[in-house]
Structure formats: structure tokens, C-alpha cells
Amino acid sequence: MMANQNGKKLIVKQNWCKGCGICVEFCPKKVLALKNEKVEIVDIENCTKCGLCEVRCPDFAIYLGGMEDEEK
User: Fold this and answer.
1) Residue 33 lies in a domain
2) Average pLDDT over residues 4-33
3) Domain count of the fold of the chain
4) Which end of the chain, N or C, is surrounded by fewer C-beta atoms within 10 Å?
């Protein structure tokens, strides 16, 4: 799952996510939620790209990375 915002992408690797919810708890803008025991991006418009989700994820399942033009 990916969501673009100003050139950066918030990327979730669903197969790496163990559903611990740590990233959800640390997100100051409530961008993330647990659904079916996996993290999902539910409100990307509020993402400030602070990186707390990436830093706190013990499984490296969520991160900010890439630029939009890399996919072209």
C-alpha cells in the first residue's frame, strides 16, 4: 500500500506487518489504523511526514521513501 504526498511516499509492506499497532499509537495525526490485524493508511491528507511510524516499527513494515518520479 502506498500513498503519495509532496514527492514522498508513505509505504506499508503488508506482508511484513505483524499488527502490533505501535506505529498507530505513535502517529500524532491519526493517519494510520489497524484493520484486519494489519496497519493501513486511513487519512494520508493529515500526514506530516514526521517519520515516527518508521522509527518505531519493529518490523520495518512502514516507511517514508522514494520520489513520485521513480515510478515512471
Assistant:
1) yes
2) 90
3) 1
4) C
